[in-house]
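On clarity, I found the account of how folds are encoded harder to follow than it need be. Since the whole study asks how a given chain folds, the encoding of that fold should be made plain. The format is easy to grasp once an entry is in front of the reader. For illustration, here is how one protein appears when written out as sequence plus structure tokens.
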Amino acid sequence: MKNIFIGFMFLIGIHSFAQEAGKVGELLKNEASKTEIESPNTKRSEARIKNNSGFRNQSQNNESGFKNSRYQWNVDYGYSEVFLRIPEQGIFSVELGDQFMANNSGKFRFFDLPSGRIPISIYENGYLLYRTTLNVRNNSRLVLDFFTNKGLYLLDSYPVQNQSYGFNNWNDVWNNPYGNQGNNWNNGGSYANVMDNSSFGDFLSMLQRNTRFDDDRLSVIRQQMRTTMFTSQQIQALVKEMSFDKNKLSLAKSIFNNCVDKHKYFIVCDAFDFESSKRELMDFVAKS
């Protein structure tokens, strides 16, 4: 019976779902008017020195033409990232806050962003297509898809710890929210995909339906751990599925290295019934 559960879980893990434009994520409203989009006056000139957004330090811009020798050595605006994909043919450019990027690869990765509301504009061949505002949290990565005939979709938000990444293939950043693992599932070895909330909900439901005992639950979860990373919130939910504290502790320790936000691992303690188990887990985390 245990082999059946593990086999069933493995088939779910390797199944590749077809992606469909606009079927995943939250649609962000286009704040650009129809007049702006159709007007030739909205064409962006890449030669302009001053950025188009009016964002961050614009009051300090030097309009005289002389170099500004006031170096900013230790300014800390926070750290966040935004990854945008445009899976279409064409020359697109993206302006995000005070950063600008243009290419025909369809992948736009922005780093060193401050937290807060950041304006984003998307252009094709220099002409404005879309403009909206992103709410960016510190130490987080927003992942988005843009389709010219559908709009801009926020796929998911992930924690960024020490600017490290839970994947081996850049395509997985955008593919994972769709439930895909790209073409990596049959490569063998270990690769770290952060399980998105929708996939985790399916996995947890399957675990609840098809396992009755802690040993079976542990086997299924540990099989999934071979290819998957989890958030501390997801790990808390998995640990709660165990019936006995000793099994909860065993799982919480073994899955620790699969956690993408270890700085929040303290919330896993809420899954335990006894204070002694909570202390033992925190001692384990402190020594890891």
About this structure: The CA atoms of residues 40 and 165 lie 40 Å apart.
